[in-house]
Amino acid sequence: MPCFLFVDGLFSKHNVDEKRYNHIFSYLVLYLALKILICLVDGLIKHQFSISLLGADGAPWYGLALFWCSLMTIFLKRFSHKWVLLGAVLLACFAGYDGDVGSTMVLSRTIVFFPFFFAGYCLDPAKVAEKLSGRWVRVLGLAVLVLLGVICFCCTDDIYFVRALLTGKNPFRTLETGYGREELVFCGWLLRLGYYAVVAVLCMAVVAVIPNHLRRGKALTAVGRRTLQIYMLNRPAIYILFDGLGLNAALTAMGADDLVVLPLAVLLTAVLALPFWEKPIRAVIYPRLQEPGAGTKG
């Protein structure tokens, strides 16, 4: 998620510098629309409707976080970027000690992930691509990803407590209450600082290994252009498949739940990337509001 926010910040310059509030407002619409859609799907399956517009757990939080990050950047861009970035990191490092900073209005996640968005805004996409396009940089980036994958796979039980930091919504006290690591609460700020360093390297590694173009990658390019609808429909589709149609229970009974995760994810992504979904999703997120005076006769 930090990498997604970094990339969004990287390509946010027009929205921020030109104060395109209509585009920024679409993030809020995305958040609300996804909230309502998940509520409807989940309610029809469980026969009980419940929605929390201020509490932002689950997939919708990302849209609201983008909304806040964009507005904050419009205000903060006038100040020295290095000091804003330093202040944002320090705030995030110590916000974890405040138990009142939680999921309401995505406050905690906005604070924790804002440095990545603002760092992306401060950088030039062309220069980032140029710096990370070298052959050895790509090799190093791939090595970093492989090494991290091996560490996560081989040391899962030993490092699982780090999950409290990864979500961005938990206070440092969760290290004690959720994972029994009371001794780490005091140095939570240092853990978050280390987390920022690791994720910064990881973001650069991900960007480095992504090819600038694909000779035979039209299908992947189409998927990339339609990430909005994939993001919008992914969680409701999972609810329908696993809860509504009972796929989760069936796979568990067959002992195949772990085996089909990746193939199912690929198949679901392909289905949700079909052009069929694009027009209705964009009509909801980017409504064409009538201009003042339009359609009226003098």
Report on the architecture of this protein.
- The chain is an all-alpha fold.
- Helices cover 68% and strands 0% of the residues.
- The protein is globular and about 50 Å long.
- The protein has 17 helices and no strands.
List the helices and strands and how they pair.
Blueprint: H1 2-10, H2 13-17, H3 21-46, H4 61-76, H5 81-95, H6 107-122, H7 125-131, H8 135-154, H9 156-159, H10 163-166, H11 174-177, H12 188-209, H13 218-225, H14 227-244, H15 247-254, H16 261-272, H17 278-285
Helix pairs in contact: 1-6, 3-4, 3-14, 4-6, 5-6, 5-12, 8-12
List keywords for this structure.
single chain, 298 residues, mainly alpha, 68% helix
Strand percentage, roughly?
A: under 5%
Helix content range: 55-70%
In total, the number of strands is 0
So how many helices?
17
User: Gyration radius, to the nearest Å?
Assistant: 21 Å
In short:
This protein has helices spanning 2-10, 13-17, 21-46, 61-76, 81-95, 107-122, 125-131, 135-154, 156-159, 163-166, 174-177, 188-209, 218-225, 227-244, 247-254, 261-272, 278-285.
